[in-house]
Amino acid sequence: MIYQGGCHCGAVTFEVEADDDVEVEACNCSICSMTGFQHLIVPQRNFRLLSGEDQLITYSFNTGVAKHPFCRICGIKSFYIPRSNPDGVDVNLRCLRQQPRTVTFVEFDGRNWEQHAHTLAHKSR
Protein backbone atom coordinates (compact mmCIF):
# COMPACT_ATOMS: atom_id res chain seq x y z
CA MET A 1 0.00 0.00 0.00
CA ILE A 2 1.15 3.57 -0.67
CA TYR A 3 0.82 5.87 2.35
CA GLN A 4 0.99 9.67 2.15
CA GLY A 5 2.67 11.65 4.89
CA GLY A 6 4.43 14.83 5.79
CA CYS A 7 5.20 17.49 8.33
CA HIS A 8 2.73 19.55 10.38
CA CYS A 9 2.56 22.60 8.11
CA GLY A 10 2.42 20.56 4.89
CA ALA A 11 5.56 21.98 3.31
CA VAL A 12 7.26 18.56 3.35
CA THR A 13 5.28 15.69 1.82
CA PHE A 14 6.22 12.14 0.95
CA GLU A 15 4.84 8.76 0.08
CA VAL A 16 5.98 5.43 1.43
CA GLU A 17 5.16 1.91 0.34
CA ALA A 18 4.56 -0.51 3.20
CA ASP A 19 2.35 -3.46 4.05
CA ASP A 20 -1.13 -3.18 5.51
CA ASP A 21 0.27 -4.90 8.61
CA VAL A 22 3.45 -3.28 9.89
CA GLU A 23 5.94 -3.69 12.70
CA VAL A 24 7.02 -0.41 14.27
CA GLU A 25 9.80 0.16 16.79
CA ALA A 26 9.21 2.18 19.92
CA CYS A 27 12.70 3.35 20.88
CA ASN A 28 13.76 4.62 24.30
CA CYS A 29 16.87 6.57 23.20
CA SER A 30 17.09 10.26 24.07
CA ILE A 31 16.03 11.75 20.72
CA CYS A 32 13.17 9.28 20.11
CA SER A 33 11.86 9.63 23.65
CA MET A 34 11.85 13.42 23.35
CA THR A 35 10.18 13.52 19.92
CA GLY A 36 7.81 10.54 20.23
CA PHE A 37 9.10 9.04 16.97
CA GLN A 38 7.48 5.72 15.99
CA HIS A 39 9.83 3.88 13.61
CA LEU A 40 8.60 2.39 10.35
CA ILE A 41 11.85 1.45 8.59
CA VAL A 42 11.60 0.78 4.85
CA PRO A 43 14.05 0.28 1.98
CA GLN A 44 15.08 3.52 0.22
CA ARG A 45 13.24 2.36 -2.92
CA ASN A 46 9.93 2.40 -0.96
CA PHE A 47 10.18 6.09 -0.07
CA ARG A 48 9.66 9.14 -2.26
CA LEU A 49 9.94 12.77 -1.18
CA LEU A 50 7.17 14.63 -3.02
CA SER A 51 7.73 18.21 -1.89
CA GLY A 52 9.66 20.39 0.50
CA GLU A 53 13.25 19.31 -0.07
CA ASP A 54 14.17 23.00 0.00
CA GLN A 55 12.45 23.35 3.41
CA LEU A 56 14.51 20.62 5.11
CA ILE A 57 17.33 21.28 7.56
CA THR A 58 19.40 18.29 8.64
CA TYR A 59 20.52 17.55 12.18
CA SER A 60 23.19 14.93 12.89
CA PHE A 61 24.94 13.93 16.10
CA ASN A 62 27.25 11.33 17.63
CA THR A 63 28.75 9.35 14.70
CA GLY A 64 27.08 11.56 12.08
CA VAL A 65 25.77 8.53 10.16
CA ALA A 66 22.10 9.15 10.91
CA LYS A 67 20.66 12.15 9.09
CA HIS A 68 17.65 13.79 10.74
CA PRO A 69 15.96 16.23 8.32
CA PHE A 70 13.26 18.42 9.79
CA CYS A 71 11.01 21.09 8.35
CA ARG A 72 12.46 24.58 8.78
CA ILE A 73 8.92 25.99 9.03
CA CYS A 74 7.17 23.77 11.61
CA GLY A 75 10.13 21.82 13.04
CA ILE A 76 8.67 18.34 12.48
CA LYS A 77 10.95 15.40 11.64
CA SER A 78 8.65 13.11 9.66
CA PHE A 79 11.40 10.78 8.38
CA TYR A 80 15.15 10.29 8.59
CA ILE A 81 18.05 8.11 7.47
CA PRO A 82 18.80 5.83 10.44
CA ARG A 83 22.23 4.77 11.58
CA SER A 84 20.96 1.18 11.84
CA ASN A 85 19.80 1.22 8.21
CA PRO A 86 21.72 3.87 6.26
CA ASP A 87 20.39 2.28 3.05
CA GLY A 88 16.79 2.80 4.18
CA VAL A 89 14.41 5.46 5.43
CA ASP A 90 12.78 5.57 8.84
CA VAL A 91 9.31 7.14 8.66
CA ASN A 92 7.48 8.42 11.72
CA LEU A 93 4.21 6.47 11.79
CA ARG A 94 2.61 9.50 13.47
CA CYS A 95 3.25 11.54 10.29
CA LEU A 96 1.21 9.31 7.96
CA ARG A 97 -2.19 10.62 6.85
CA GLN A 98 -3.68 7.14 6.98
CA GLN A 99 -2.61 4.31 9.25
CA PRO A 100 -1.87 0.70 8.33
CA ARG A 101 -4.58 -1.85 9.13
CA THR A 102 -2.50 -3.45 11.89
CA VAL A 103 0.44 -1.93 13.76
CA THR A 104 2.57 -4.12 16.01
CA PHE A 105 4.80 -2.12 18.33
CA VAL A 106 8.15 -3.63 19.29
CA GLU A 107 10.16 -2.13 22.13
CA PHE A 108 13.70 -1.24 21.07
CA ASP A 109 16.42 -0.49 23.63
CA GLY A 110 18.02 2.50 21.93
CA ARG A 111 19.67 3.60 25.17
CA ASN A 112 21.93 0.58 24.60
CA TRP A 113 22.03 1.03 20.84
CA GLU A 114 25.38 -0.66 20.20
CA GLN A 115 24.16 -3.94 21.70
CA HIS A 116 20.83 -3.98 19.84
CA ALA A 117 21.26 -2.22 16.48
CA HIS A 118 21.90 -5.49 14.64
CA THR A 119 18.28 -6.54 15.30
CA LEU A 120 17.11 -3.77 12.90
CA ALA A 121 19.51 -4.42 10.01
CA HIS A 122 17.01 -6.47 8.00
CA LYS A 123 14.38 -3.70 7.89
CA SER A 124 15.80 -1.88 4.85
CA ARG A 125 16.21 -4.97 2.68
Name some characteristics of this structure.
125 residues; globular; 3-stranded antiparallel sheet; 5-stranded mixed sheet; Metal Binding Protein, Guanine Nucleotide Exchange Factor, Chain A; single chain; 2 helices; mainly beta
How many domain modules?
1
CATH topology: Metal Binding Protein, Guanine Nucleotide Exchange Factor, Chain A
What characteristic shape results from the CA principal axes?
globular
Low-confidence stretches: none
The first-level CATH class name = Mainly Beta
What features would you describe in this structure?
By secondary structure, the protein is mainly beta. The chain has a single domain, classed as Beta Complex (Metal Binding Protein, Guanine Nucleotide Exchange Factor, Chain A), CATH 2.170.150.70. 8% of the residues lie in helices and 40% in strands. The protein is built from 2 helices and 10 strands, in the order E-E-E-H-E-E-E-E-E-E-E-H. The strands form 3 sheets. It has a 5-stranded mixed sheet with strand order 8-9-4-3-10, with no helix packed on it. A 3-stranded antiparallel sheet has the order 1-2-5, with no helix packed on it. It has a two-stranded antiparallel sheet with strand order 6-7. Strand 1 and strand 2 form a beta hairpin. It is globular and about 35 Å long. The relative contact order is 0.28.
